[in-house]
Amino acid sequence: MVRKEAVRLVSAVFRAGNKGLSPSWSIGGTRFKSAMPQPTETRDEDLHHKDGKVLHPHLLNENVMKTQYAVRGELYLRAEQLRKEGKEIIFTNVGNPHALGAKPLTFPRQVLALCAAPFLLDNPRVEELFPADAVARARKILAAFKGGVGAYTDSRGNPMVREEVARFIEKRDGVPSNPEHIFLTDGASVAVRLCLNAMIRHERDSIMVPIPQYPLYSASIRLYGGTLVGYYLDERRGWGLQVEELRRALKEARDEGKLVRGLVFINPGNPTGQCLSEENLRELIEFAYQERIVLMADEVYQENVYQDERPFVSAKKVLHSMGEPYRSHVELLSFHTVSKGTAGECGLRGGYVEMTNIHPGAIEEVYKCASINLSPNTMGQVALSCLVNPPKPGEPSYDLFMKEKGSELASLRRRAHMVTDGFNSLPGVVCNFTEGAMYSFPQIKLPPKAVEAAQAAGKAPDVFYCLRLLEATGISTVPGSGFGQEDGTFHLRTTILPREEVMSSFVERFQKFHNEFMQQYA
Ligand code: DCS
Description:
The protein has 19 helices and 16 strands. With about 525 residues, it is an alpha/beta fold. It has three domains: about 1-35, no CATH class; about 70-100 and about 400-520, Aspartate Aminotransferase, domain 1, CATH 3.90.1150; about 175-390, Aspartate Aminotransferase, domain 2.
């Protein structure tokens, strides 16, 4: 019997330990002790499932089992199933522009192509096929990436690209940026997770996160064994962020013995689409300073702004403008990516975190953890290089680059209006304007009969609505419960990414479904 064998083995090791053969070993100077359980505690059911599997879904890390990620949750799985059955699905559940027909920007792809196929640079016709600045950039990158894009880079990313990111930030904010405080990562997701992993020590460690939020935060906090403290954004005031609400959430958390260490804000917001004012950012910084909380500024949508009243301002810029004591005390982690903006290069996985006022020793520890992954992927770094250091006026690629970006941004702005107007034209739907980012997050006032029908089907009402929408129209959305919403309210999130040519039929399909649904449950 397995248990008897385990008991025999453990007792043997302990006996050996008594004779001076301690069950411990060392790796790289670190001494490890055998964490073997006491013999009496070894049970078959802890070692394997009754079907014999050791890696059984009920026998995994508890944090893994408790983690949920709605963007690829039940709705997405059903959509995938319908797609396999031959139904046409519009995947508006994820902010993945190229999947819905957005075209890549030409310049970064030319540079990427040359970096991936460096032998093209030896071809005498290369200057006929590629503009001179793309060729020059590829040569520069290949010279900086020792061994080309097939070699690991430093675990924080290539130094030249980190330098380019620092210059980009300086130009954007007009304040100094240190490349030593910038880590390149496989998309912003990895940067966020690196930081959360380092911050969360145990269950009491808490991170304040907006409700609604992007589930990268809820999922990662859960995965690392910490606690999420939600603060509500005010839907009636355009999903605005209120300091009184931050104070309420913090007080309640502290009264319950939680140790609040970080505060996430997403600007422009996902899923809300709201843009923070400079005043809001000042309040956040003041709050973080007074309460000694690390600010996590998720600024991945900084280019995606569709109104002129509140242009994007980075938290770092505002922090500097506030002078001392804030400027050199408030600990700030700022995240950015190549996945969003007008590039939408989600698949290339390029992102970064900039750490402001973070203790050098803590940065070293994060470096150590990044090193476990060896290196962020190189193509993501090349894409990032092109986007933070784009063609300049007078260079051959400049005009096309600006034209492509400008027309995509203008189109996104039109689509933001089309989607918001479409939702607000429907009975029982209210929707704040998508000021920024890529999403629309309407509230659906579901009639009581629909709520009852959902309960009878064993589904949350918003999940029920989104499933019915999917089955009827092929439109794949994410229910509001995946992001968090005030109790008793129901939302869904869709992207504004269908191309303009299909947007009106997208909106029409939605409207037709919604009207029929509301009539059925009136
Ligand atoms: N932060 C926010 C607010 C995001 O919305 C996303 C991606 C990320 C970080 C991470 O992006 P990358 O890892 O690709 O850099 N947004 C997801 C979403 O809600 N839809 O698509 C992906």
